[in-house]
Amino acid sequence: MSDFEPKIIGLFCNWCTYLAADLAGVSRTPYAANLRIVRVMCSGRIHPEHVLWAFRNGADGVLIGGCHPGDCHYIEGNFKTLRRCLLLKRLLEQFGVDKRRLRLEWISASEADKLRRVVDDFTETLRAIGPFARETPIFRPARTEAPGAVAASTDTKEEG
Amino acid sequence: MEKKKVGFYWCASCGGCEEAVVDLAEDLLTALEQIDIVFWPVAMDFKREDVERLDDGEIFATFINGAVRLSEQEEIVKLLRRKSRVIVAFGACSHMGGIPGLANGVAREAILDYYYRNGPALESREPMPPDPERTWKEHGFHLPRFYENVRALDQVVEVDYYIPGCAPPPNVVKGALAQLLSDQPPPSGTVLAATHALCHECELNDTKPEEGIRIQAFRRPHLVDKIDPHTCLLVQGLICLGPVTRGGCGALCIKGRMPCTGCFGPLDGVRDFGAAALSFVASIIDADDPHDIERILDEGIPDPLGTFYMYSLPKSLLFQKVLPSNGRRTARTEPRREKAESR
């Protein structure tokens, strides 16, 4: 497993965690290159569908970053994210997915160092768990699902 | 006017959808003035050979209910796809996998073990799992294969329209038939029911509080002593999936004061019904502390997968439970790209 590099999708709030990542950048703080960041206006904007979509399309882990409780730019968006994440983790477990693959962290705009720690630690965790696709051939990324694409062949064969 | 040829078929289903056709009552007779049924195994004596004799595309429309799990079902729906100009997924099972689709939360071997090897109902009988290799050649048949997973109809063949519901209520079936037989049929891929959420047609909708719903404890219907018949069920803590479920049924379950479980499936533009349901249910929890939230979830939602994907597990983004890779239980099938997603 040593050569496995997990893919992490980071869904970061515009007001806190994304700025922390920005700060990490300008301060030249090195952290694991496994992270791909998607900026959202608020962590409360993140739909569970986004997380499942990421997993289906080849992510090994999803990191959601929001403002600390009480600091949400939109007052309570991060609390909604907290509730959704706790319930979504339960759902993932029922799907047989290790719940550690979904991680929620509160990282404020000034906490570039916390971001570094979290990303490095999450990468290590995922290295230990292993790739998502290994467990689940059906999630092999990613047939193009672009709008307007024509339905693919139906000749699927299965073990009977 | 020449009558249009129509077929019906059932796959993994309970038979309720066949009832739904009969539930049309007199309207079925009116429909029969316009259509000619050429295949309907549950009610009429046509055989597979009769379908095979038809020209490709000769059937105007075939209504298929039930999910697909057996090789026989796959063969016949592919045959019907060739022979039919229009394929309609009829009912929740062919639309999204339905109740049989919940089997995607369990390993195939576990199912076979329970029903043919170790189940309590088997007593001391010799284990006798179905063996597709075994044939009764003298009778010309063999057992179909039991696939690794359950698929919705559009994960097997291309589907033109969907009639949702478990089972589809007569008004929906009637409306859908009228749309199909009209001169201007709806665009391919349409779910032939309402485009609004169930709440819009619910008689209790006005009792939702303006300021939004906050729930401190979810209550499960069978554990509730008394349901207030004049208040939105969600406000009472019952998990009603009306806000994320397609309308059109006339809120039948809520009229019986049972919460909506989502059989009409998602609204247009939603990829994963369960995720949408989970999202809205989680967001109305009235707690900010992780421990309080966990307690509310422990007490109120013991089975998120069964609650949110009761009818749509095969159409979920994760498709089925992840099973250990070393066994032979891992699925080989990738869910087919869903046509509805492109819209």
CATH class annotation of the largest domain in chain B: Alpha Beta
**Separation of termini of chain A?**
31 Å
* Sequence stretches where pLDDT stays below 50 over 5 or more residues of chain A: 134-160
Task: Find the structural class of chain B using helix and strand composition.
Answer: alpha/beta
Sheet with the most strands: spatial strand order of chain B: 2-1-3-5-9
Strand content of chain B: 5-15%
Mean pLDDT of chain A: 85
Descriptive notes:
The complex is a heterodimer of chains A (160) and B (343). Chain A has 160 residues and is of the alpha/beta class. Chain A has one domain: Rossmann fold. Helix content of chain A is 37%, strand content 14%. Chain A has helices spanning 17-26, 48-56, 77-94, 112-129, 132-135; strands spanning 8-13, 35-40, 61-66, 102-106. A 4-stranded parallel sheet of chain A has the order 2-1-3-4, sandwiched between helices. In chain A, helix 1 links the parallel strand 1 and strand 2. In chain A, helix 1 packs across helix 4 (112-129). Chain B is of the alpha/beta class and 343 residues long. Chain B has 3 domains: 4-100 and 146-193, Rossmann fold (3-Layer(aba) Sandwich), CATH 3.40.50.700; 107-142, no CATH class; 198-315, no CATH class. Helices cover 27% and strands 12% of the residues of chain B. A 5-stranded parallel sheet of chain B has the order 2-1-3-5-9, sandwiched between helices. In chain B, strand 6 and strand 7 (141-142) form a beta hairpin. The longest helix of chain B has 13 residues, at 71-83. The two termini of chain B are 34 Å apart. Mean pLDDT of chain B is 89; it is low at 325-343. At the A-B interface, helix 2 and helix 3 of A face strand 8, helix 9, helix 10 and helix 11 of B.
